[in-house]
Amino acid sequence: MSHPNKVRSRVLEKEVEQLAIEQGFVDTNRCYNSTGESIGLPANVDVPVTSLKGTKIPLQCKRQKKRFSQRYIPEDNIHAQVVRGDRQEAYAILRLNDYMHMLWLLEKAGLLEELPQAIL
Description:
Number of strands: 5
Helix content: 25-40%
Number of domains: 1
Largest sheet: 3 strands, antiparallel
Structural class: alpha+beta
Number of helices: 2
Shape: globular
Radius of gyration: 15 Å
């Protein structure tokens, strides 16, 4: 029987894959054993998403058993939560649906390919 953490991670990866398909992305294949190396990508890629125009969007999925810290979850009236550790880069945390919708809008406007690879 699979380890519970692996099962949780796999469930999240499948949710991300399904959402990407619902948003209209053409190719979303969860990597075998949660490693991108299985399909020729970096090892930390879990779900590679491909846009209609062929832009590759590598996603990594992390899931915790215990509740994710509330301080990192944006409140209902907030679009994204910005977090930064000391001497580290800042990151924006936003809802997965909002992120996928933003990518879809950028794809529709023909701007997805122009984004820096670090954003994708």
